[in-house]
Specification:
There is one protein chain. The chain has 489 residues and is of the alpha/beta class. The protein folds into three domains: 139 residues, DNA polymerase, domain 1 (Orthogonal Bundle), CATH 1.10.150; 82 residues, no CATH class; 194 residues, Aldehyde Oxidoreductase, domain 4, CATH 3.30.365. 34% of the residues lie in helices and 12% in strands. A four-stranded mixed sheet has the order 2-1-5-4, sandwiched between helices. Strands 3-6-7-8 form a four-stranded mixed sheet, covered by helices on one side. The two termini are 38 Å apart.
Length: 489
């Protein structure tokens, strides 16, 4: 088996530079495996090294660029990237597999090709968009993000969640897995459940959402030495707010103090789905004058939802917010744009409905909580047109990458994503492929226009996320439940 470290050094660096050049890596957790898949797609290292600009031009003249795009997207079915939305990965692979150098090609959707030249500005933009300290550059594409478990000492004990929900500790991962007695769960055939009913009333528009998994790729992990500070599970990225209250670091510290040794704590995908926070499901009814009620699901053990109330009222002052106790996995108001996104989407689509706009090609404009602004339209061919105003861009490659990723996540949220739960509120869909996240083959083309200004830098991708959700819901005909297209052929 060959890993990223076993790839020819020159070839490895070419892939890393290309991924960085087009914004094809954000947290970097998934990209080493993706690079290996794409390098294998080239046929051989020598074939890729011998690819020339002349050969690439001949391919383009022969109309093979589209076929190459399809081959790349098909190869990516074996992978999942939650951050980038696939497009920049496909662009990086098309450049290298087609023989371009990266400097030669101006990807459609960028006003102009601007390289990531200042690591500080690049990291600043990534932190604004991701909500947490984040490094950027070629080394990140190769897995150099400093993820928590990568930095753990070799002699650390390993703690896992056992079959009964308790914690087991072993001398190594193999022993801990044996002691846990647990077999990874699978997806179910259960239909999605909607825990909240729309309030009774005369509504111009209604919406219900279901349980949605953040689906970050790097699972919760931490390690700690006795009496020391535990490693953060947010080593290189914000996990869409899903790890801000992770109990894993506290558990690592406690176990290290109890055992007198360094301890690694690792959650499996099943643990994350069962124990990690979900976006609070909502049920909304809005009147023609913009007033209405938004019900928000609150589950046992969840943190206070007061911040969610505040954010909803800040964008939709005519809404009354009601919390409703339901059985289900934990929810968290800190997940990406929770609450205010749903309220803003309903209000935006109410305005479109009043104006009797067409379904396709209609731009939806949203201003985020910190002032970043986006305008998004679903085009007739299914592609997505994005304009974003985020103050000083700092690094247009990074900003564009986050905007494309926001489109991907919003389209999945509205159209295909959900987690089935049983009668007691326990999640039944326990693999990442059961969540309905859009694959590279299912993701439409995204065109991004960045409007630079000398204003202080602002988050732009959250506004893109919300505007895309509204544009997709409008284009789909405003069905009263999300996901709108799940299960349809």
């Amino acid at each position: 088996m060959t890993t990223i470290e076993g790839l020819d050094p020159e070839l490895r660096e070419r892939w890393a530079r290309q991924f960085s050049a087009v914004g094809a890596s954000q947290c970097g957790f998934c990209t080493p495996g993706i690079i290996m898949r794409l390098a294998a797609l080239a046929g051989s290292d020598a074939a890729l090294r011998s690819a020339s600009g002349e050969r690439a031009s001949a391919l383009r003249r022969a109309g093979h660029e589209g076929a190459l795009d399809g081959r790349i997207r098909s190869a990516l079915r074996a992978h999942l990237c939650r951050c980038t939305g696939w497009q920049t990965i496909v662009e990086a692979a098309t450049d290298l597999l087609g023989g371009a150098t990266g400097e030669e090609k101006d990807h459609k959707g960028s006003a102009r090709r601007i390289r990531s030249t200042d690591p500080l500005l690049s990291a600043w933009r990534a932190q604004l968009e991701g909500g947490h300290i984040q490094s950027n550059g070629p080394s990140i594409a190769l897995g150099g993000g400093g993820f928590a478990d990568d930095t753990a000492p070799r002699d650390a004990l390993v703690a896992l969640v056992g079959r009964d929900g308790g914690v087991v500790v072993g001398e190594n991962l193999v022993e801990a897995r044996r002691l846990s007695g647990k077999i990874q769960g699978r997806n179910s055939s259960r239909p999605l459940a909607y825990p909240l009913e729309v309030p009774t009333g005369e509504w111009a528009l209604t919406l219900r959402t279901t349980w949605v998994e953040p689906a970050y790729l790097e699972l919760d992990a931490s390690w700690c030495r006795p009496g020391r500070t535990p490693a953060s599970p947010l080593a290189n990225g914000g996990a869409f707010g899903g790890k801000r209250r992770s109990p894993v670091p506290g558990l690592a510290r406690r176990l290290a103090d109890e055992t007198g040794r360094a301890v690694r704590v690792l959650w499996s995908r099943e643990d994350v789905v069962r124990k990690g926070p979900k976006r609070p499901p909502v049920a909304i009814g809005v009147r023609a004058d913009g007033t209405g009620v938004i019900r928000v699901a609150r589950t046992p053990g969840s943190p206070s939802l007061s911040s969610l109330h505040d954010s909803i009222v800040s964008v939709a002052g005519g809404f009354v917010v009601e919390e409703v106790d339901v059985a289900g996995p934990p929810v968290d108001p800190g997940l990406r744009c929770a609450g205010w996104a749903e309220a803003a989407v309903v209000e935006a689509c109410l305005r479109l409905q009043e104006n009797r706009e067409a379904r396709v090609g209609v731009p939806v404009e949203i201003t985020g909580l910190d002032g970043g602004r986006a305008r998004v339209a679903i085009v007739e061919d299914g592609s997505v047109a994005v304009e974003v105003w985020a103050g000083e861009p700092l690094d247009e490659v990074v900003l564009r990458s986050y905007c494309i990723g926001a489109v991907h996540q919003a389209l999945g949220w509205v159209r295909s994503e959900g987690v089935a739960v049983d009668e007691t509120g326990q999640p039944c869909d326990l693999t990442i492929r059961s969540f309905g996240v859009l694959s590279a083959l299912d993701t439409p083309r995204v065109e991004v226009t960045i409007h630079p200004s000398d204003h202080w830098p602002l988050n732009g991708s959250d506004a893109v996320f919300v505007a895309t959700a509204a544009a997709a819901w409008w284009a789909d005909g405003l069905p009263p439940q999300w996901p709108t297209l799940r299960g349809r052929t």
